[in-house]
Amino acid sequence: xxxxxxxxxxxxxxxxxxxxxxxxxxxxxxxxxxxxxxxxxxxxxxxxxxxxxxxxxxxxxxxxxxxxxxxxxxxxxxxxxxxxxxxxxxxxxxxxxxxxxxxxxxxxxxxxxxxxxxxxxxxxxxxxxxxxxxxxxxxxxxxxxxxxxxxxxxxxxxxxxxxxxxxxxxxxxxxxxxxxxxxxxxxxxxxxxxxxxxxxxxxxxxxxxxxxxxxxxxxxxxxxxxxxxxxxxxxxxxxxxxxxxxxxxxxxxxxxxxxxxxxxxxxxxxxxxxxxxxxxxxxxxxxxxxxxxxxxxxxxxxxxxxxxxx
Amino acid sequence: xxxxxxxxxxxxxxxxxxxxxxxxxxxxxxxxxxxxxxxxxxxxxxxxxxxxxxxxxxxxxxxxxxxxxxxxxxxxxxxxxxxxxxxxxxxxxxxxxxxxxxxxxxxxxxxxxxxxxxxxxxxxxxxxxxxxxxxxxxxxxxxxxxxxxxxxxxxxxxxxxxxxxxxxxxxxxxxxxxxxxxxxxxxxxxxxxxxxxxxxxxxxxxxxxxxxxxxxxxxxxxxxxxxxxxxxxxxxxxxxxxxxxxxxxxxxxxxxxxxxxxxxxxxxxxxxxxxxxxxxxxxxxxxxxxxxxxxxxxxxxxxxxxxxxxxxxxxxxxxxxxxxxxxxxxxxxxxxxxxxxxxxxxxxxxxxxxxxxxxxxxxxxxxxxxxxxxxxxxxxxxxxxx
Amino acid sequence: xxxxxxxxxxxxxxxxxxxxxxxxxxxxxxxxxxxxxxxxxxxxxxxxxxxxxxxxxxxxxxxxxxxxxxxxxxxxxxxxxxxxxxxxxxxxxxxxxxxxxxxxxxxxxxxxxxxxxxxxxxxxxxxxxxxxxxxxxxxxxxxxxxxxxxxxxxxxxxxxxxxxxxxxxxxxxxxxxxxxxxxxxxxxxxxxxxxxxxxxxxxxxxxxxxxxxxxxxxxxxxxxxxxxxxxxxxxxxxxxxxxxxxxxxxxxxxxxxxxxxxxx
Lengths: 310, 386, 264
Hints:
- The complex is a heterotrimer of chains A (about 300), B (about 375) and C (about 260).
- Chain A has about 300 residues and is an all-alpha fold.
- Chain A has helices at about 1-5, 10-15, 30-55, 75-80, 80-115, 115-130, 135-145, 150-160, 170-195, 200-210, 215-225, 225-240, 245-250, 260-270, 270-310, and strands spanning about 60, 65.
- In chain A, helix 5 crosses helix 12 (about 225-240), helix 7 packs across helix 9 and helix 12 (about 225-240) packs antiparallel against helix 15 (about 270-310).
- The longest helix of chain A is centred in the C-terminal third of the chain and has 38 residues, at about 270-310.
- Chain A is globular and about 70 Å long.
- Chain A starts with a helix and ends with a helix.
- The model of chain B is unreliable at about 1-20 (pLDDT under 50).
- Chain B has helices at about 15-20, 65-75, 115-125, 130-145, 160-170, 190-205, 215-225, 240-245, 250-255, 355-360, and strands spanning about 25-35, 40-50, 55-60, 80-85, 90, 100-105, 175-180, 210-215, 225-230, 235-240, 260-265, 270-275, 280, 295-300, 305-310, 320-330, 335-340, 345-350, 365-370, 380.
- The longest helix of chain B has 18 residues, at about 190-205.
- In chain B, the strands form 4 sheets. Chain B has a 6-stranded mixed beta sheet, sandwiched between helices. A 5-stranded antiparallel beta sheet of chain B has the order 13-12-11-14-20. A 5-stranded antiparallel beta sheet of chain B has the order 15-19-16-17-18.
- Chain B has 2 domains: about 15-100 and about 175-255, P-loop containing nucleotide triphosphate hydrolases (Rossmann fold); about 260-380, CATH 2.40.50.100.
- Chains A and C meet through helix 3, helix 5, helix 6, helix 7 and helix 8 of A and helix 1, helix 3, helix 4, helix 5 and helix 6 of C.
């Protein structure tokens, strides 16, 4: 493949050109360019984490406010059987949805990357449009479809397959479908770059060796993308963990995920310290998963570099 | 190796420079070194480039020729050494303040600008008056034969036209030195050949000092006043093209500049080498090697002759090796005969179609004798020999 | 395989487009209440969207946030991406991670964070707070599109400008920036559309004082279905589709999403 044929001269070119160990280094303007945005991100993104951590130890007072203190109330509440149970439920449903989503998104993305641009672009637009769609609208749409007044069961009745319309929402499966809907486009986009890079000749080689396209898919494409599959699965998992509306609209309280609890506590229950505590917990879980994903990616990157060196 | 000593291109240079009354060095490199981590890309290179000449850096991928060019352009900084242009030390001067014009391997035309603005870019950056820019651009368009294409977008041009735009753009500011980084590599073979001639004529017409990086020996031979052969960051040999071709100093140069047969044997006294048990007379050289010392001869395929075994000539005559034909590559205009003489690689003998027509028809398995006339045998340094 | 492909692709298209079709049909239902099959069609709910002052206010709020918010996101991303690309400073991975992380973590975390921050500063509930929060949260999007754009520029084009006499600043303004415009526009537009659709951050930071469109939809949903919600959903989807189609015309969507960018 292309990796092997890299001529040595291009290696020369890819050496750092302007900055290297002996070079003049970063200019002042460069430093400012890097530091100002970093500062903004630090103040408005990292800063709040410190504040959240502190707030999680504050005492909540009636009327929706909180006052500085050091109480473990929020954390002990998070450690209660009920919330541990809720956390486990969140992880379970999101893992399930992530698995199913990847299972469908993987072959779809594969077919997508093998299409001519003429067919590929409209599908990509559809995927991106679905991705940008507000969760509120997604929840509303599925509520409409799964509800009693319109949607699927009416069609069934109309077709004579069902005697009377039935509502599937709120319910566990409604939440699953809603989560899958928001997760699917995200999953496709995580898989897309890696799959589109798989050399066409590789699958053609497999097919000229007598493997059917289906076998080629399972024996060549899937093993080649194992790391990307795992990475996509984990990213989708984090993504669904972040859903805050789907569970609220399409599920009963027993179907709520941690994100729903956070927004519920922070707003309707006005318990910011407790919301901050759950948010810190969710951050820890998400960071751990993102970290694992990055590690997987860099390991793959290093393996590639080794291949180049050989 | 010649790297430690200063190399003056005027000594033994081409007729052109010899006839000029006063040749000045335009560009001088003194003990320039560039390291990337543990890799030494340019290793203690010293070189003087006279005004108005075209000098080629020739070498395989990774020999450091592109790095050397980038150091001259100021796109990279040397770890050690001095670079002087027209008498001024420019080692530490940033690229945008150097008086250079460069054509990149990828051409690097600005895709968002039309032909006119591409060519005029360097002038505009120097805040040249609009009218002056317009005149100069028109002049350049005529020079590179692109009249009437000023308003085209770069994407609408053919490969050869893009090439011309890149050349015109680099020449717009009348730079002191013109740098070409594999300028033809993006073109197909036919176009490349004709542009080589054109570019060489243009360079001579303008009399601009030019350095060209190439890995194509044919291109280097076509265009250069002087060829600098580079290998592993060091200068292997410097000289006019024919001189380097006819008298390579090292096995590397002999192999890289045109195909050659390397015959490895041992010294058998003054101007005599023993190869595979047979004696070879070589032109006498100044340096004397002890009997039995390693010696390598380079002999061009075109200079070798085939003899049919059984003819009158003495089988024991010097400069001859017996062998069997292992392959005949008949290309119409020329033919190449591969002869297995017991060395690691087969000997290649090249001839014209007339030789083939007049001589006997050769086929695989024929027993022949290869004759290397004394004048064609060049003793070369062969540090890579094991 | 062909059958498999046909099945997968059509299932996905039905799954993704189907719900929007249902919403579309509902938005055209003349009846105030949902019924099926639809007996009479009407476009009056779209009209209501334009005339109802509450809906109009929420549209204007959303635009007031998304226009500067996406601008802020680009302002954060552009210098950062350029500096990281140009100088490749040490720990550039750390800077990149900082830029990408807001978007990677569940948005509800950023939402609570912003809520706590503005409570701390003592200016909760302001529309500027939402603009800043969106600018920070969505800066990842232009950061990625601009970084991809920079990676796609032949490095010798910048070097060519240098050898022609341009210093760093002039090179940026005459060559790099013009070549980056598509990536910047893409980043801006994507951040804009995402900001327009964003609910949780806007809601937590200023939900009780500034009602954006998604917040308005959700609030209306709590009081029961109105066809206006369906109409506004369709308008939203239409905006997304329109903007994305424009982007596809403007540049190669496949390339923007990372196809053909070799990582060697």
